[in-house]
Amino acid sequence: MIIRKLDQPVDMLTHVQGGEGIICRRQFLLPEDSCGAGRLFGVFTLAPGDSIGYHRHTGEYELYYILKGKAKVMDDDREEILEEGDMMQCKDGGSHSIEAVGEEPLEFLAEILFPNER
Question: Going from the N-terminus, what domains does the chain have, and what CATH number goes with each?
Answer without folding.
Answer: 38-106 (2.60.120.10)
